[in-house]
Amino acid sequence: MTPEFYPVQEGHKILLAKSPKDDPKLKYRKEVERRINRGKFSIPARRLLNSLYRQLKLDAEVAAAIEGEVQQPYLEYQRKLEEYESTLIEAIEAESTLSRTTLNDLRDYQQHLGLRDEDVVAIEERIIGERKIAYEVEPSEYAPQPPILGEQESKELRKPYGTRSSANSEVVRNQSPPELGDLGGKCVSSDSHTSFIEDLGKGVVLEMVAIPGGTFLMGSPESEPERLDSESPQHTVTIQPFFMGKFSVTQAQWQAVASFPKVNIDLISDPSRFKGANRPVEQVSWYDAVEFCTRLSKATDREYRLPSEAEWEYACRAGTTPPFHFGETITTDLANYNGNYTYGSGSKGQFRGQTTDVGTFPANAFGLHDMHGNVWEWCQDTWHENYNGAPTDGSAWVDENANQNRMILQGGSWYNVPRDCRSASRSFLNAEIRDDYFGFRVVCGEPRTF
Q1: Fewest C-beta atoms under 10 Å: which of 211, 323, 347, 434?
Q2: How far apart are CA 232 and CA 184, in angstroms?
């Protein structure tokens, strides 16, 4: 039975209110959170709020305090942006040519401040563009140069399921999911979702879940709190059936595949900072993830690859439309992220400060775990500022002429605030960057013969 009264804090006192939804302060705060845009209010929003706090019989000082609380994270974020900009200017003044070491230090400093990539890129393009600063490209064992691929091989690596053809197989649009018996491997039933097991050797397996085809609305609605313009416009996308890793690739799986014969680049067998066989592998670049897929494909005669951005969001949502596949907000009981921050009406929680074993948190309706938080996951696509002109067939949106310094990541991580873990959240980074909150999961379609 629902209790008639709930405790509400008023200064140092605990009062009783009929229900949290009847608390005028809570009502006003929710409206402030809904109306705020990058820390500011439009003129119409300002007048609506002025009218609302009077209707709710709140003192002007109380209303201002609530607004200040809501604005505080935005103001703090702006301060950090200004701090990063001043640091960049000082670095440029100290070095006429920015070295690779300095660039890596800037990336680390950005992550220390918790700044979004698109905001930092805007600062760098403005400052560096004004000053025409050169970059010094240094060979680095830690960040190897991109592999040299033939033109056809490069294109094949980037094509999504449903577009490839080979001498021995041809993919037909709108076909049913491949029969698991035809794919080989061991078929199992897991969490009411059909899946197959890929044996990687020495007791290590990779579980792949069948994702049904369907149509969904990609991106976020304008009403979604803390959304970004890069998630617009929402558009309808039709996805063909495919298989996706039940979990992010684990360190055990990584080590198994890293021992397979090299195809294009070397792989570090144990790159992760947070050690654990069942923790997600991290400290892997986009190139590393592609090499993993290529080695795995050759070893299994099955075509493994990174998901397209559309496939990833479709799989994450699993038929849902709220910001998270489990609802309108997020808690640290449901995902691994920076619990010092909240989203919507959510409450603060635990900040673990590191990755957790895959499968620690509940799966979504498709049977996939950790789609929100833990590690960012690399996708095939190159970055585009918004979805104008985006494909509607689920294929990867790859600009062959684009600099691969902007490859898509999705899902957020243990380090990120809740807004970055939303289903529609998207970010990008240089394809050769590694850090302890970047990982990936694999997808596959039909088998192919090499």
Answers
A1: 347
A2: 40
CA distance 377 to 409: 5
Buried b (16+ CB within 10 A) or exposed e, 262-278: ebebebeeebbebeeee
Half-sphere exposure of 57 (CA within 13 A, CB side): 2
Alpha-carbon dihedral of residues 233, 238, 243, 246, nearest 10 degrees?
40
Question: Which CA distances in Å does 112 have to 83, 104, 108, 185?
Answer: 12, 12, 6, 43
Instruction: State the Cα–Cα distance between residues 352 and 349, nearest whole angstrom.
Output: 9
d(CA 151, CA 398): 14
Decide if 241 contacts 211 (C-beta within 8 A).
yes
Question: How far is it, in rounded angstroms, from Cα 65 to Cα 141?
Answer: 52
Query: pLDDT, tens digit, for every residue of 209-247?
Result: 999 999 999 999 999 999 999 999 999 999 999 999 999
Tell me the H-state helices in 43-171. Answer: 43-55, 60-94, 100-113, 117-131, 151-158
**Per residue in 278-301, pLDDT tens?**
999 999 999 999 999 999 999 998
Distances in whole angstroms, Cα of residue 169 to Cα of each of 396, 443, 444, 446? 21, 18, 15, 9
3-state secondary structure of 29: helix
- Chain position carrying tokens 């509940």: 362
Token digits of residue 446: 């039909």
Question: Are 230 and 410 in contact, with CB atoms under 8 Å apart?
Answer: no
